[in-house]
Amino acid sequence: RPLQAAPTTRFSLLLPLQLEYAGASPVQLRFLRLHSRLATQKVSYSCRPAPEQGQPQPEKEIRFLADSREQSYAASLQGCVLDNESSITDTIFQFTTEELSLLPLRDLAVFHNGDASHQFGFTVGPVCFS
After folding, report:
1. Where are the beta strands (DSSP E) in the chain?
2. Which of 36, 68, 100, 120 is deepest in the core (most CB within 10 A)?
3. Do 113 and 59 meet the contact criterion of CB atoms below 8 Å apart?
4. pLDDT, tens digit, for every residue of 16-33?
5. Phi, psi dihedrals of residue 123, rounded to the nearest 5°
């Protein structure tokens, strides 16, 4: 369900826990890392601009907290804009790394300078080790 944005939103503050992965115990993750060279994960950002919003919204910054909790990825995100075919806009982030301690992602933060004129949500995909 979409969450209404606040000036800076770290999802672990809105939800009771950081991102969790069913069936992925610390022991299992350690085993996967020992037998892998690469980790990948996708995150989809979906937004729905307010109907009265006629102009593009300002760019936003998103930070993705790594599994090590000591590093994070930063990305810029174009404003949420209506197109002709859908009322929802999706942006896909693809993470690929040989530094296996960075995935899976554990938390997300959105920085948006007080612009709360749209609803947004994230779909966090599974982490794949190979």
Report:
1. 3-4, 8-10, 39-49, 60-65, 72-77, 89-97, 107-111, 118-129
2. 120
3. no
4. 457 878 888 889 999 999
5. -120, 115
CA distances from 10 to 15, 46, 65, 83, 90 (A): 9, 16, 10, 28, 20
Residue 117: beta bridge partners? none
- One-letter amino acid at 5 equals A
- Please tell me whether the overall predicted TM-score, pTM, comes out greater than 0.90 for this model: no
* Cα–Cα distance, 31 to 121 (Å, whole number): 31
* Residue 72 bridge partners (DSSP): 65
Alpha carbon distance 54, 39 (integer Å): 40
Neighbouring CB atoms inside 10 A of 53's CB total: 16
Helices (H), the chain: 11-14, 26-34
pLDDT for 75-89, tens place per residue?
Answer: 887 767 666 566 777
Cα–Cα distances in Å, from 75 out to 7, 17, 86, 102, 106? 17, 23, 24, 16, 16
